[in-house]
């Protein structure tokens, strides 16, 4: 019997004011042997559609879920037109209980995950950003907690993709040489990174670059996986989508959603037995220094 796939994209999307908007997205893909159920947690379908197409050409079950269900019906209509039958499951990555419940759901029902794509983030208008805003809570800390809960249930041969931003590298270049050296060191720990993030905020003076911590965290988690589960051949990488035309990024980006999906999908579908890339930062399917 051909293996089936289960996908889960979890989203909380809220328009808090006319000045900023928030997007929380997590993609789960779990390899299944016999199931026929399709679970779908929809989010902004402009990114959901191209990602789904790459996987569903060889799969049946798909699961998506979101926190507020904003845009769910629009996404459901789009997916139905592609021959999919979406169901919904709620997940808010800023809520530890919600994250643990989702982890338990996939562990108990499917035995774990084969692919986890973290695409969580909040974007604020530059004028209205301040260090106390929630961008770091979601872009770094909540995503870190997601990884710590879900990495143990990634199956052998699994793939993990953390969506970051090349802008974080540009922001780091504005920081002190000492801070740059620690962020780019090969022995930085998760605990040290957490402490450095506050300095990064102050020196970079740009909340949108909170995803820089996610790039470094990806290297830390990749190193940990290689040390603790070497035989499982799990590959974990960070990537930048580029400026994509979405509800969040606006209509002027040079990339279509289909083009933006190419890099994370390629990392999610690295072939069995591949050893690289691992712990890298990837742009347009090419490894870049950070």
Automatic annotation (TrEMBL):
InterPro entries named among the record's database cross-references: NAD(P)-bd_dom_sf, SDR_fam
UniProt keyword annotations, A-Z: Membrane, NADP, Oxidoreductase, Transmembrane, Transmembrane helix
Nucleotide-binding among keywords: no
MF terms (GO), sorted A to Z: carbonyl reductase (NADPH) activity
Ranges that cross the membrane: 12-32
Pfam family, any one: adh_short
Entry similarity comment: Belongs to the short-chain dehydrogenases/reductases (SDR) family.
Protein name: Carbonyl reductase 1
């Amino acid at each position: 019997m051909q293996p089936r796939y289960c996908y889960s994209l979890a989203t909380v999307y809220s328009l808090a004011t006319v000045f900023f908007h928030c997007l929380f997205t997590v993609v789960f893909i779990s390899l299944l042997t016999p199931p026929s159920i399709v679970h779908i947690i929809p989010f902004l379908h402009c990114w959901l559609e191209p990602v789904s197409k790459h996987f569903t050409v060889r799969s049946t079950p798909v699961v998506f879920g979101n926190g507020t269900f904003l845009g769910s019906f629009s996404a459901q209509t789009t997916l139905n037109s592609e021959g999919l039958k979406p169901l919904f499951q709620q997940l808010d990555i800023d809520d530890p209980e919600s994250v643990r419940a989702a982890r338990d759901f996939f562990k108990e029902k499917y035995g774990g995950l084969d692919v986890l794509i973290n695409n969580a983030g909040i974007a604020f208008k530059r004028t209205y950003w301040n260090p106390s805003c929630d961008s770091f809570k979601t872009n770094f800390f909540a995503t870190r907690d997601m990884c710590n809960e879900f990495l143990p249930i990634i199956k052998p041969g699994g793939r993990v993709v953390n969506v970051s931003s090349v802008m974080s590298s540009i922001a780091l270049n504005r920081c002190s040489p000492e801070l740059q050296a620690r962020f780019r060191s090969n022995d930085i720990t998760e605990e040290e990174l957490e402490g450095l993030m506050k300095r990064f905020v102050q020196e970079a003076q740009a909340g949108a670059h909170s995803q820089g911590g996610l790039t470094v965290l990806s290297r830390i988690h990749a190193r940990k996986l290689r040390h603790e589960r070497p035989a499982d051949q799990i590959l974990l990488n960070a990537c930048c989508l580029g400026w994509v035309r979405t509800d969040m990024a606006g209509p002027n980006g040079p990339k279509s959603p289909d083009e933006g999906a190419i890099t994370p999908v390629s990392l999610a579908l690295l072939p069995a037995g591949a050893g690289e890339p691992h712990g890298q930062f990837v742009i347009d399917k090419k490894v870049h220094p950070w």
